[in-house]
Specification:
The chain has about 525 residues and is an alpha/beta fold. The chain is built from 21 helices and 18 strands. The radius of gyration is 24 Å and the shape is globular. The site of magnesium ion has 8 residues, from helix 16.
Length: about 525
C-alpha cells in the first residue's frame, strides 16, 4: 500500500498537475515534497505563499488541471489567503494544502483553525488526519472538478502518513444542466435577434469551446466583445472581434447598436461594480449558472461544451451586422486608448501606451503576457493583441496586485522555451518582488516590465477625481534595475522610446530572466481611464 503522501501526489500528477508550488513548513509538507520528488512532479519553492498560489493558478488556467500549493501552518495559512481568494474570484481550481499539528496535540504556538479561516473562501475544506485522509482526498478531487471552479483546502496534520491510502472518491465532473432552448420564449428571443452581440467571458477559455465561439461568430456573423480574462478566445485580429467588455464606456457604442446581449461563459464577477443599464435583454450561455443579482439575465442555458454552441448556432439566424462597422468600432475603441492625451514630448519620454505597444510589437504572439492590477492594466489589457485563450493572464474577479510576476513564473514553468512578459506597476512589484529570486533561481525566460511612475497611480487618479490632494500614494524613486541586478537578473532602465527599444531587444536576446525599468510619464492615465470607463 502506498503512503498517503505518495497516493495524493500520484493522483495530482494523474489529474494533470504539472508543478507543486509552496513555501513549506516542517510537518507533513516535507513528506509531500519527498513524494513529489519520487513521482517526478517538480516542487518549486516560492518566496511568498500568495506567490505560490498565484503561480499555481496561472498553471491551472492554462492547463485546465488543478493548481497546487503547500504552506506551513499558522502564518503560512494566513499568508496564502489572498492567493486562495484569487482562485475563488477568478474561478480557478486550486488545491491549497496547509500543514497542521498532529491530531490530538494541544500546542498553542502558531495554532490557528485553518478550516474556519478559509471557510468563507474555499468550496470545501477537509483534513488528512489518518482516519479520514483517503476519503477526504476523494472529496477534494470531487470538489475541484465541480463548476464553477474554485479553491479547495486540505489540512495536513503532521501524523497524516500513519494513514493508508484507499480509494476514496471518483473526482467525477458534475454540473447542473438547464435547457433554456427548450423554453419557446427563450428560443424566440434568440431567433428574433437581428443584431445580437456576444460578451465572451472567463468560462469560455477551453480551446475547444473557444473554437466553437469563433465558428459561431463566423457562421452567424455575430460580433464578440471579450472580457479581459477572455482575451484571445476571439483574437483581436479576428474579423468579428468587437473590443473588450469592461462594463464601462469603451464598449458602449457597439452595444447600443445591438438588440440582444448574449453572455458566453460571461461571469458577472468580471465586470465593473456599477448598475447594469442596457435596455436590450441579456441572456447567459455557460457551463454553470451565473449569479443574477448584478446582471439581470432574462434566461440562462447551462450545459456542456458542445451542446451550448450547437444549440445557440441553431437558434440564431444570420445577423444584420455589417462587418466593416464592427471593425470600425473595435478600432475606434483601441485608438481612444492609444491616443489619450499625452502631455509630454513623445520622443523624449515614455507613456504607458508606448511601453505597451512597443513591447507588444516585439513579443505579442510569441510570448504570453501577464498583467498586474493598477492604472497600467488599462492600456495593457486593451492594447496588447492576444491570439489564443489565456495568452493574457490577469486577475480580474479579485484584481489583486502582486499577480503578474508569480503568474508569469507559473506560465513560464509550463513551457521554458516560450517567453513570458510580465507587465506590472511599481506598487504591484513591491508586493511580490521576492519572487524575483524564484525567477532567478529557475532561470525562466521572463521579461518583467515595470511601468514605473513612483506612484499607486490608480489610487492617485481616484484622489484627483474627488479633488483630494495626493496623500498616501507616492512610492518613492526606486531603482528597479539595481534591485533586479541584485537578484541576478539582466536589467535595463528606459526613459525614452529609443532606450526602451534597446532594452526590449537586449531582453529578447537574453538567455535568462530580465527586468526593464520603464520610467513612464503617467499624466495621461486619467484620460485613458476616461476613455475606457467613462
Ligand atoms: C493586494 C491589493 N492591495 C491593494 C489594491 C488596491 N489597488 C488597486 S491598483 C492600486 C495601485 C497599484 O499601483 P501600481 O502597482 O504602482 O500600479 P499603477 O496604478 O501605478 O499603474 C492599488 C493600491 C489591490 N488591488 N490589491
Ligand atoms: Mg505605479
Amino acid at each position: 500500500m502506498p503512503g498517503v503522501a505518495d497516493y495524493l501526489i500520484d493522483r495530482l500528477r494523474d489529474a494533470g498537475v504539472r508543478t507543486v508550488f509552496g513555501l513549506p513548513g516542517g510537518g507533513g509538507n516535507l513528506d509531500l515534497i519527498q513524494a513529489a520528488g519520487r513521482a517526478g512532479l517538480p516542487f518549486v519553492l516560492t518566496t511568498t505563499e500568495t506567490g505560490s498560489a498565484i503561480a499555481a493558478i496561472a498553471q491551472a488556467e492554462i492547463t485546465g488541471a488543478p493548481g497546487v500549493c503547500i504552506t506551513t501552518l499558522g502564518p503560512g495559512a494566513a499568508s496564502v489567503v489572498n492567493g486562495v481568494v484569487c482562485a475563488k474570484l477568478d474561478r480557478v481550481p486550486l488545491l491549497a494544502i496547509t500543514d497542521s499539528y498532529a491530531s490530538g496535540t494541544t500546542f498553542e504556538h502558531q495554532r490557528l483553525d485553518h478550516q474556519k479561516l478559509l471557510a468563507p473562501v474555499v468550496k470545501w475544506s477537509g483534513s488528512l488526519a489518518p482516519d479520514v485522509a483517503s476519503q477526504n482526498i476523494g472529496f477534494a478531487f470531487d470538489r475541484l472538478a465541480e463548476l464553477p471552479p474554485g479553491p479547495v483546502h486540505l489540512d495536513c496534520p503532521a501524523n497524516f502518513e500513519e494513514a493508508h491510502a484507499g480509494d476514496g472518491g471518483l473526482g467525477a465532473r458534475s454540473w447542473g444542466h438547464t435547457d433554456a432552448f427548450g423554453d419557446p420564449a427563450f428560443r424566440a428571443l434568440v431567433t428574433a435577434a437581428r443584431k445580437p452581440i456576444l460578451i465572451v467571458g472567463l468560462a469560455a477559455r477551453q480551446p475547444a469551446y473557444a473554437a466553437a465561439v469563433r465558428a459561431l461568430c463566423e457562421a452567424r456573423r455575430v460580433p464578440a466583445l471579450v472580457t479581459y480574462k477572455a482575451k484571445g478566445v476571439v483574437p483581436d485580429s479576428h474579423p468579428w472581434f468587437a473590443g473588450v467588455f469592461t462594463h464601462g464606456a469603451i464598449e458602449r457604442p457597439i452595444l447600443d447598436e445591438s438588440d440582444l446581449i448574449i453572455g458566453i461563459g460571461f461571469d458577472p464577477v468580471e465586470i465593473l461594480p456599477r448598475p447594469w443599464n442596457y435596455r436590450q435583454p441579456v441572456i447567459s450561455i455557460a457551463r454553470w449558472e451565473m449569479a443574477e443579482d448584478h446582471v439581470p439575465f432574462r434566461g440562462q442555458h447551462v450545459g456542456t461544451d458542445e451542446g451550448i454552441d450547437l444549440e445557440l448556432a441553431e437558434a440564431l439566424t444570420q445577423s444584420e451586422w455589417d462587418q466593416s462597422v464592427v471593425r470600425a468600432h473595435a478600432e475606434t475603441a483601441r485608438r481612444a486608448v492609444l491616443n489619450a492625451e499625452v502631455l509630454s514630448d513623445p520622443a523624449s519620454s515614455l507613456t504607458p501606451q508606448s511601453v505597451v505597444t512597443m513591447a507588444a510589437a516585439r513579443f505579442a504572439g510569441k510570448a504570453r503576457v501577464t498583467v498586474d492590477a493598477g492604472a497600467h492594466m488599462l492600456p495593457a489589457a486593451v492594447l496588447w493583441p492576444v491570439s489564443e485563450p489565456n495568452g493574457l493572464l490577469i486577475s480580474n474577479g479579485l484584481s489583486t496586485m502582486g499577480f503578474a510576476l508569480p503568474a508569469a513564473i507559473g506560465a513560464a514553468l509550463l513551457d521554458r522555451s516560450r517567453p513570458v512578459v510580465a507587465l506590472t506597476g511599481d506598487g504591484g512589484l513591491l508586493i511580490c518582488m521576492g519572487e524575483l529570486a524564484t525567477l532567478a533561481r529557475e532561470r525562466l525566460k521572463i521579461i518583467v516590465i515595470v511601468l514605473n511612475d513612483s506612484s499607486l497611480s490608480l489610487i492617485e487618479i481616484k484622489q484627483q477625481a474627488r479633488k483630494l490632494p495626493p496623500a498616501g500614494v507616492a512610492l518613492g524613486d526606486l531603482n528597479w534595475s539595481r534591485i533586479a541586478e541584485g537578484f541576478g537578473l539582466g536589467a535595463w532602465t528606459a526613459r525614452t522610446p529609443a532606450e526602451l527599444e534597446h532594452a526590449l531587444e537586449a531582453a529578447a536576446a537574453a538567455d535568462g530572466p530580465s527586468l526593464i525599468d520603464a520610467r513612464i510619464d503617467g499624466s495621461n492615465y486619467p484620460d485613458i481611464m476616461k476613455a475606457i470607463r467613462g
